[in-house]
Amino acid sequence: MAVPNTVGDLDPVALEEALIDTWREQETFQKSISQRRDGQPFIFLEGPPTANGKPGIHHVVARTYKDLVCRWKAMEGRFVERKGGWDTHGLPVEIEVQKRLDLMSNEAIEEFGMAEFNDECRKSVWTYEDAWRKMTERMAFWVDLDDPYVTLHNEYVESGWWALKQMFEKDLLYKGHKILPYCPQTGTSYSSHEVAQGYKEVEEPSVYIKFKLTDETAGDLAGASVLAWTTTPWTLPGNVGLAVGPEVTYARVKVTAAAGESWDGRGGAEVGEELILAEDLIGEVLRHQAEIVETFPGSKLVGMAYEPLFPDAVSRGNSTTAWTILEADWVTTTDGTGVVHTAVMYGEDDYNLGMKVGLPAEHTVDMDGRFIAGTHNSLDGRYVKDCDDDIIDLLMYDKLLYREKMYVHDYPHCWRTGHPLLYYAMDSWFVRMTAVKEKLLEFNDQVEWAPANVGTGRFGEWLRNVKDWAISRERYWGTPLPVWICQDCEHQHCAGSRDELRLLAVDPSKVTDDPHRPFVDEVILPCQKGGCDGQMIREPYVMDCWFDSGCASFAQWHHPFEGDGKFEENFPIDYICEGVDQTRGWFYTLLA
Q1: Other beta carbons less than 10 A from residue 446's beta carbon
Q2: Beta-strand relationship, 274-278 and 225-230
Q3: How far apart are CA 292 and CA 279, in angstroms?
């Protein structure tokens, strides 16, 4: 049997580099496209990375699949343009600049100067462009990085404005005051698909609190305390109500013996003390021997008043329902005590119930995540997540703590900083995704997913539970929200282009080619509502950066402003390939 000749000393790196040099010198990639220009188009959309972060191995994996399919289609004779893209707005960019310049608060940024800060952001997005180019070339991923789409380009931003105006005119873009996931460290709220990317398993203290009924309203329950459970002790200073299920059976129990040796942690109850909780949860909650005195439906408790935990934290104002027990059909006995502590400003169900029955809507926590002065002298000015232990101590001292236990659960964290998010009542602009849910599901059925179960399972389930998209951000570097509001009559107007602004502006010279902040903030419009002489000021928000990348299919061509047909030629998309995490990121915003 013949022995094959060996190739001798082979330097694979040198061979690879020589081949890359040949491709570059002979413009092999460009020719592979131009030679097939008459072929049937195969439309590929590149997901835009941000060049202010280094490429990683996960980028290599995704780009391998992208390149494989695009080469295969080119080998079949298809015309496969591969336009690169860069995601250049948003919080990731701002955070890097803040760290470098030591500007770790919004106040520090504004003192530095918004224009100067955004200039630094504009430069920062290209920090690792060379590293991206080298990685792209060395792994032989053929994509056009010399003529990419860039989300910070003025034309790209303008196309985003056009899309927002379409939503506004269809009543799909609206301003609301809702409970939103909020990061005090970055000073901005997040959308549901961003929150989904940042859950972590944590172990935190949870507490069972005694809310003492007032004698004036308790009737035959005078002297008893209602037990409620919470996993967020920091929200207790903001408590203004308790929610019960009207059809749930509750029990009034009397403690008959002290806790045994199994008792662990702070808290307690005295022999003879009476507690009220859901009958089904007695065995789960109580750590004392107790006898059931009576049972009754939750409706009996409705309207009874209790003593505030922190009397000075929230003012009653004109509320007639503050610190009373309220009816809520969403209360269950699956966990807790069957009684839900209600802090209007820090939970979605809490907020909705508070608005319905007129509870005080007053913050005890500021936008930096610190307790507001007047909450309690040992808490004022401190970061709320640092105060859980002290709050538990305060309640124990006042004999309002029944027991504590460590609780393991998944909790949302900022997907960029890793800090825990706070649920916080605040103004924001929303896209009414719930109004188009059926359309989203219909379009998703037309997408060929690989594997198929991602589309029907992970992504399909996400769409079936879709929420309105909180699309505005309280930041600086991003696509500005093009909505102006009259200072007199509150009429709203959404601009869809720079030319529209020039046509309407009080001073057209203020409308520059650059639509970014702070320049666009200086544009004032006369009120567009007939009969009003007021002036319209722009809402001081930028867009969720996922909105930017979600516009890629049309904004990369400056659609609809450039009528060269490029968008129509390149839509719908034949092939997109990204990590499965993008089902709650880019894939979602593209479909939306």
Answers
A1: 8
A2: parallel
A3: 9
For 311-316, the CB contacts below 8 A with 24+ separation are 312/374, 312/375, 312/376, 313/237, 313/238, 313/364, 313/374, 313/375, 313/376, 314/237, 314/238, 314/240, 314/360, 314/362, 314/364, 315/360, 315/362, 316/360
The identity of residue 561, as a single letter, is: F
Q: Domains of the chain (ranges plus CATH)?
A: 42-163+545-591 (3.40.50.620), 170-197+420-429+465-543 (no CATH), 200-412 (3.90.740.10)
Residues in the chain: 592
In angstroms, the CA 167 to CA 157 distance is 16
> For residue range 48-91, what is the model confidence (pLDDT) as tens digits?
998 888 898 989 999 999 999 999 999 999 999 999 999 999 98
The model's pLDDT over 395-421, given as tens digits with 9 standing for 90+, comes to 999 999 999 999 998 999 998 788 899
Report which of residues 491 and 1 the model is more confident about: 491
Which residue has tokens 């529209």?
500
> H-helix or E-strand containing 114?
helix 114-124
Residues in contact with 488: Cβ distance below 8 Å, sequence separation at least 6, in sequence order: 527, 532, 533, 534, 535
Q: Scanning the structure block, which residue is given the tokens 């124990």?
A: 396
Contact 101, 78 (CB under 8 A): no
pLDDT classification of 592: cutoffs 50, 70, 90: confident
CA-only gyration radius of the chain, Å: 29
Angle formed by the axes of helices 129-138 and 57-75, to 10°? 50
Residue 128, phi then psi, degrees to nearest 5? -110, 25
**Can you tell me the distance from the alpha carbon of 282 to that of 253, in angstroms, rounded to the nearest whole number?**
9
For the chain, counts of helices (H) and of strands (E): 21, 21
